[in-house]
Amino acid sequence: MLGPPGATQSAQGRTALPVTTGNPPSATFPWERPLTSTTPPTSTSLSLPAPVPYPFNEQGDGLGLHAAYADAREGAGMVRVRLPHGEPAWLATRYEDARFVLGDLRFSRAMALENDEPRYNAARSKPSILSMDPPDHTRLRTLVSRAFTRHQVEGLRPWVRELTSGLLDEMVAAGSPADLVENFALPLPVQVICELLGVPASDRGQFRVWSDALLSTTRLTEDELKENQDQLTGYLAGYVAERRADPRDDLMSGLIEARDAKDRLSEEELVSLCVAILVAGHETTASQIPNFVWTLLEQPEEWQRLVDDPELVPGAVEELMRYIPLGAGAAFPRYAKEDVEVGGVLVRRGEAVVVSLGSANRDPARFDEPETLRFDRPANQHLGFGHGVHHCLGAQLARMELQEALRALVTKVPGLRIAGEPEWKRQMLVRAPRVLPVGW
């Protein structure tokens, strides 16, 4: 049995992985080199390596990347893993393998609905834009994409700049210490996406509950998860009905017109799209703002660089998106439509592959000094927003919001500091402080 570099053998002969600070391994497990082949196996009973428990750092606080990822990149690259629910999968840890799987149309998201997909909670995924392949995925994405073009997003920048400034003024006026998440990181993207979609930002407290439920791993039972999904779906279905009666200049009204006048999507697809836009439209940004602050204040010389030269902010946003492993692990499996070789491993037709974006973004084969923040990193083609047909639809909007949030923080509160222990999100698909006390 092979172990990763730096591992030790226990008395039981199992391989113990080295541990990084704040990210204990979820278990001690065997680590076997995956099967490699250049021709399709002829025997259905061909033995595959025993899958290892995944994710590696599910219970850890902080934003460190577990040592198992580096060991995998340096060794097999593709590793057999088993998530808490569903069938085993291959885990892609290297940049080139990850980009290949995400971009090659021989890998399908839609097939996940036909299989016992690898997943974090017991509930099965519902059909949505995230579980579609072209041409259905292209049809729905096209309907929404016009709201998230660079031109449209830049038109929103002055308003977002004013919004960030106002939120920080209110936080400072209320006095130190304050919770950066509740007072700044959460209301900013919620107000932006609600403005675009046409739903009231005053309901942001309930949006947070529903979003947490949809992104939960094991915190909720299957019945509790379904109840929250049904509540959010019902809420947005109600607003669809209101917009039908009183159309406005917002994204929801545009989607309703595409449904009613042009028959370009079904009613179920319409509501599902609104759910995806609302949750994805604020969760990543709301998580990355405190992640950015936590990371920069842990390296105060980097924070000071931005204070001294705010023009570095756009490059800093790209580098922080690369550096910070937002996900607790890999999700959204892709299924091979045919036998495909990935990184020297034969992925057979019908087998699932999950991709670790965090690991790919730290791959030294792609990035020089990947463990170092470099705001001037050239050609920073990170995978923080994904890749391929499922590349984040709102990437331009998220970039702009993160740029404006970070610029406002380093210019308006240059003396920002951590003022208490953060409360980290646990058993969630994303890692970030749920509460981040700050002073200035």
TrEMBL record:
Coiled-coil stretches: none
Ranges of biased composition (kind: Polar residues): 7-26
Location of the region described as Disordered in the Swiss-Prot/TrEMBL record: 1-53
SUPFAM superfamilies: Cytochrome P450
Cited InterPro entries: Cyt_P450, Cyt_P450_B, Cyt_P450_CS, Cyt_P450_sf
Keyword annotations: Heme, Iron, Metal-binding, Monooxygenase, Oxidoreductase
Compositionally biased spans, kind Low complexity: 34-49
Gene Ontology MF, one: monooxygenase activity
PANTHER family per the UniProt record, alphabetical: CYTOCHROME P450 YJIB-RELATED, P450, PUTATIVE (EUROFUNG)-RELATED
Family statement: Belongs to the cytochrome P450 family.
Protein name in UniProt: Cytochrome P450
Record lineage: Bacteria, Bacillati, Actinomycetota, Actinomycetes, Kitasatosporales
